[in-house]
Description:
The protein is mainly α. The chain has 7 helices and 2 strands. The protein folds into 2 domains: 1-29, no CATH class; 31-141 and 167-202, no CATH class. The chain has helices at residues 14-23, 33-47, 55-70, 84-97, 102-118, 126-140, 170-202; strands spanning 144-152, 155-163. The longest helix has 33 residues, at 170-202.
Amino acid sequence: MQAAGKGLASSHCRRHVEHKARHGSHWKRSYTAGELAPYLKAALSYIRPRLQTEMFIKDTVMHLALLLEQSPFEIATRLRGMSAKARASIAFGRLRKKAVKPERLLAIHIAITALVEEDPRPHRVKEFRIVQVAKALHRLASGHHVVHELYIGDRRHRSELHKFPRSSGRVLRIMGQRVEDICEWATAEHMAAVLALKVKRYGRHPGLPPC
């Protein structure tokens, strides 16, 4: 981009810079909901029976609940001009509005970490991991949706508005880092057990050779 006079990146083209902004990596794409699903199911089934008995899980969920409770809410059509920090806080407010439970945030952090660990082509860089956590959170509260119906004479007219917040850039890094700061100890303590449970229930990653 520097050589072409179209940006500041010294060793990447614009396409790869934009790819990193969206995915947290210059080359690796984001995990899909389907790829994450078995890890998330294993993490949730592991966490839920331990919510009141395991110290790391209990403390982490308590702090995640506080994060959701203290986050402001605003609809996606009113985000223009706001800073990345404000948008990140509002994203957590959308999760609260959708009644997303705090243990699900912990489960997502553990699941992403376990998926990166088992991935046959991993990108074990912190930025990629926290961006993937934030993108998984974004999918839980996907935007603002309004449907209007009106009658003109005998005919019904229907109009829809769907506004999705941009899933790219600094907002993802801020969201992912906030969850990482709260969840890192619980994830370090329990990720291996969750990964073992996932393998037992759903098998190894499809990209790995069979045992």
